[in-house]
Amino acid sequence: MPVEVVTVPCRSDNYAFLVHNTESDETALIDAPEAAPIGAALKARGWKLNDVLITHHHGDHVEGLGPLREAYAPRVIGCGADAGRLPALDLSVADGDEITVAGQKTIVHDVSGHTINHIAFHMPDCAHVFTADSLMALGCGRVFEGTFEQMWDSLSKLAALPPETVVCSGHEYTQTNARFALTIEPDNPDLISRAAAVQAATAAGTPTVPSTLSDELATNPFLRAGEPSLKAALGMENATNAQVFAEIRRRKDAF
Ligand code: ZN
Ligand code: FE
Question: Under a CB-based contact definition with an 8 Å cutoff, are residues 79 and 86 in contact?
Answer without folding.
Answer: yes
